[in-house]
């Protein structure tokens, strides 16, 4: 019984200690956590969790571990505020993934971001075609900021009245130099059609294409390597 009561007290103490540390450090917006913040949160949780089930650890030990780690985090925050050069190491830097409508393959590679992941992030921002994006920036928290091309901006009521009622989604036909045959078949297209479209734009081989998407009624959109 005493052990159960001790765990209860330590649990409440650990909870409020973590809460106070989090409020003090300003980590209230979870969606804006950087990689460093995420690691710090995991370690704080591990410190409290392990201490709760350690018979030799009491409230003083839990408090010491939590507030010592909190102090290190606070010092880190001060360092990143005072010394700009430390921010790229501790917080990371935003990466321009799409620049003036063109995919930045090296930036994607360094950010460990593939085409499928990029398309998922863009769709979450209401961009269902890479061709309609002028700029896309991968933020330090893993989210993406999107600026659409002027013709793809939010339409007026007049524009909406002129648009078709059933808009067609972009179909990815080439990704990382490989033809996506399933997508071609679902769109009633074939490899011969694709080769002809590539030749129209001076591309001789699909292996030279990093990304290509097709929208009915529009030319094939190609991003070379």
Q: Overview of this structure, please?
A:
With 225 residues, the chain is an alpha+beta fold. It folds into three domains: 1-88; 95-152, bsu07140 like domains (CRO Repressor), CATH 3.30.240; 170-224, CRO Repressor (2-Layer Sandwich), CATH 3.30.240.20. Helices cover 48% and strands 16% of the residues. The protein has a four-stranded antiparallel beta sheet with strand order 2-1-3-4. Strands 6-5-7-8 form a four-stranded antiparallel beta sheet. A hairpin with a 5-residue loop joins strand 3 and strand 4. Helix 1 (2-25) runs antiparallel to helix 2 (35-52), helix 1 (2-25) packs parallel to helix 3 and helix 2 (35-52) runs antiparallel to helix 3. The longest helix is centred in the N-terminal third of the chain and has 24 residues, at 2-25. The chain is elongated. The mean pLDDT is 78. Belongs to the UPF0702 family.
């Amino acid at each position: 019984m005493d052990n159960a009561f001790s765990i209860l007290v330590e649990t409440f103490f650990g909870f409020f200690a973590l809460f106070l540390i989090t409020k003090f450090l300003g980590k209230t917006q979870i969606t804006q956590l950087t990689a460093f913040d995420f690691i710090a949160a995991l370690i704080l949780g591990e410190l409290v969790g392990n201490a709760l089930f350690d018979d030799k650890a009491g409230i003083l030990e839990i408090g010491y571990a939590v507030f010592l780690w909190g102090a290190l985090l606070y010092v880190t925050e001060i360092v990143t505020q005072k010394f700009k050069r430390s921010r790229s190491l501790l917080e990371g830097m935003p990466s321009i993934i799409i620049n003036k409508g063109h995919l930045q393959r090296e930036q994607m590679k360094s950010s460990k971001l593939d085409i499928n992941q990029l398309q998922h992030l863009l769709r979450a921002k209401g961009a269902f075609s890479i061709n309609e994006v002028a700029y896309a920036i991968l933020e330090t928290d893993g989210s993406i900021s999107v600026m659409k091309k002027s013709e793809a901006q939010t339409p007026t009521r007049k524009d909406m009245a002129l648009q078709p009622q059933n808009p067609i989604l972009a179909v990815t036909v080439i990704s990382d130099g490989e033809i996506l045959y399933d997508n071609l078949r679902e769109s009633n297209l074939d490899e011969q059609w694709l080769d002809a479209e590539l030749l129209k734009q001076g591309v001789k081989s699909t292996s030279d294409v990093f990304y290509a998407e097709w929208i009915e009624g529009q030319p094939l959109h190609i991003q070379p390597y």
